[in-house]
Amino acid sequence: MEKQVKQNILTLQGFYLFVFFGIGSLFPLLSIYLTEVEKLNGYQIGLILSIGPVIMIFFQPFWGMLADMKNYHNRLLTLTTLITGIAALGYLVFDKFLLFLIVATILAIFQSAIIPLSDSISLKYTSKVGVNYGNVRLFGSLGFGLAVFVMGRLSEWKPEVIFYAFFLTLVIAAGFSLKMPKESSDRSSSLFSGMKDLLRMKKFLVFLGVTFMIFGPNLANNFYFSLFVEDRGGTYTGIGIAFLIAVLSEIPFMRAAGSWIRKLGLLQVTFIAALVSLIRWIFYFTEPALGLVYASAVIQGFSLGLFIPAGLQYIRDITPSHVTATAVTVYSAVGNGLGNWFFTFIGGILFEEYSIYAVYLFFAALTLVGVFLTVWLLQDHKKTSAETGFQ
User: Fold this and answer.
1) For residue 344, what are the domain limits?
2) pLDDT, tens digit, 9 for 90 and up, residues 311-337
3) Considering its fold, how many domains does the chain have in total?
């Protein structure tokens, strides 16, 4: 049994490694490709980049409902991962803005299934066998960081290589998903029934607000950070170095997240992540020197490296077992979908009308709201912990 557990954990780690290598190959450099190769303007780029998160808002719950109703978690993950990789090749086939928009829509429909389904499978399995989820998820950060570094250099030679890398790595990831531990659905209620239960939970709704304000800017930053580094004088290779430092810094914090959570508490760790994110966006607004941008990139480890495992565990802990799957789906839709779309779209407008620094000022302002919401949850937790026994 121990050997089987290790094999399953390696399979999950391999899936995250290749999926996020693909994501890191494409999305951080897509804005540069559309700007310099396809000559699109800020409004067009903002619309293309934001259409994906909009699609995710609606389709992530759909994929979760379909998986739970039919118990197709693993098969759906394999199918959608494969189709997502193929869809990205459309950027190479077409050369018009409207067609790019269609490609982005198709890609987003199937990509929207990958994160919630893989997280659902991984969370349930790691919980079952007593393994820290962060030790699995950190391979996603490793893959993302390596991809941006490697593809940043290769794209200087041939920008189109980012699409081939995305396709190849997602095909490999689809192969890993075939060997993932099987998830069986134990839900007794429908998606909409579970949704009604969640809407009555004040803590859950407030934490969705925290996720929107904190996770949204961090995801949108994947698109705009390359433009920021370029504006500070960085090259494609420099962009890759900055992303490598930022993303790889998540790994030690994801490994340490479990012990931090045990010592400090889930909300306390979330507050630290939110506060550090706020400091990061304010710092970028001050137009720091390129060397300081590279040095400060490690801040991402504090924010996302802690927020990702703490957020998922908090959602799992505050929701009843019969609606946990629905809660994770909604949580993902708000963070990866709604928050990502909103900050990416508004960021495109601010970038076109003002500058990349206005984008980061906007990120800081909304992140501050997320910090205040986290403080509210901490205070509410102190008032109710004696009654609920929640740690």
Assistant:
1) 2-388
2) 888 887 787 766 666 777 788 888 877
3) 1
According to the model, what pLDDT value does residue 193 have? 59
* Cβ 336 vs Cβ 308: under 8 Å: no
> What are the phi and psi torsion angles at 232 (to 5°)?
-80, 0
Question: 90: buried, middle or exposed (CB in 10 Å: 19+, 13-18, 0-12)?
Answer: middle
Whether the predicted pLDDT of 269 surpasses 70: yes
The dihedral region occupied by 184, where left means phi > 0, alpha psi between -120 and 50, and beta the remainder, is: beta
Least Cα distance to 256 among 208, 217, 308 occurs for 308
In the three-class reduction of DSSP (H, G, I as helix; E, B as strand; rest coil), residue 39 is classed as coil
Q: What is the pLDDT of residues 66-106, one digit of tens each?
A: 776 666 778 889 999 999 999 999 999 888 888 999 999 99
Mean pLDDT of 138-165: 85
For residues 98 and 185, the model is more confident at: 98
**Domain with 87 in it: what CATH number?**
1.20.1250.20
The DSSP symbol for 162 reads: H
Rounded CA separation 324/308 (Å): 16
DSSP 230-249: HHTT--HHHHHHHHHHHHHT
What is the model's pLDDT at position 209?
94
Find the Cα–Cα–Cα–Cα dihedral 38, 41, 44, 46, rounded to 10°. Answer: 110
| CA distance linking residue 73 with residue 64, whole number of Å | 8
The HSE-up count of residue 236 (CA atoms within 13 Å, CB side) is 19
How is residue 305 written in tokens?
């490296």
Q: What's the rounded Cα separation, in Å, for the pair 326 and 323?
A: 5
For tokens 């409004």, name the residue.
Answer: 43
